[in-house]
C-alpha cells in the first residue's frame, strides 16, 4: 500500500484526506512511477471546490516527476530507472506512486531536476503555448501579464524578456512587485493601489498592448480589455477571482475590433508530437538559464491542505511543490 490524497466531496482544503491506496501493476501501454515531486496549481483548487466537476470520490493533482519502476506490455522508449515527468488528466498526481499511460510522460534531460520538472510541467507548458503559439511574442512587443508574481506569471515574465519583449505585470503587493521585477517584469503595477489600466496606457504612451494574458477572470476582465490596442488579443487562461461574466461581443467591437480566446493546455498538447516539442522547448530554456523554475514553497504532500489555503490566500509566489 502507498499513500495518496483523495476527496469524497467538494469543499475547502479540509476535504482532502491522506489515505492508503492500492496502485496495482501497469497494464499494456502503461508504466508505474515512484513520484519524487508533485506540482501544485490553481486548477487543483477548481477541481476541489467543484468549479470544474470531477467524478467523486477522486484524486487531485495534474503534474509530477519521478522514476519509472515498472513497465507494462508493449511500452517502448522507456526503461525502469528512467526519470520522467508529466502533466495530464485525470487528476491524481497527489500520490506517492501512480500507474499511467506511457504516452503521458516525457523523459527528463540531466540538466532538469525532478523538482524543476514537477513545478513547471503545467505552468511552463502553459507559458510556452501562451508566448509561442496563442500570441507569438516578438522582439519589441510590450505585453501585459496579470498575476505576474504567480507560477505562470514569473515564467512568462522571464521567457518574454528573453524573447525581447517589454513586460508589464500586475501584482497585489510591493513584495510581489520586487519578485516580479527580479524575474524580468519591467513594469510591475501594484493593482491594490494603482489603476493598472491607466498605468498601462502611460507606459505605452497611450497605445495599449497587443496582448493581455489574464488568469484572474471576473475582477480584471473589463479593465484588461481597456489595456488593449486596436486588434489586440485578450487571452483568458484562468478564473482565480471567479468565472468571467456573460460576454457581450460589442465590448470587443467598441474597443477596436479586439480578439478573444479561452485556450487550454490540453488542446495545445493533444497531439504527442506537440507535447514532445513543447516540452523540449521548455526544457531547453530551463537548461539554458533563460528561465528559472522559481520554487518558493515546499510542503509535504500530507500537508497539502495548508498548501491549498496559502495558495488561495495569495500567500505564495512562483511555484509550489509537494513532496511525497
TrEMBL record:
Database matches in SMART domains: PKS_ER
SUPFAM superfamilies (alphabetical): GroES-like, NAD(P)-binding Rossmann-fold domains
PANTHER family (alphabetical): QUINONE OXIDOREDUCTASE PIG3-RELATED, QUINONE OXIDOREDUCTASE-RELATED
Residues forming coiled coils: none
Protein name stated in the entry: Quinone oxidoreductase
Keywords: NADP, Oxidoreductase
Pfam families: ADH_N, ADH_zinc_N
InterPro entries: ADH-like_C (IPR013149), ADH-like_N (IPR013154), ER (IPR020843), GroES-like_sf (IPR011032), NAD(P)-bd_dom_sf (IPR036291), QOR-like (IPR047618), Quin_OxRdtase/zeta-crystal_CS (IPR002364)
Enoyl reductase (ER) domain: residues covered: 11-322
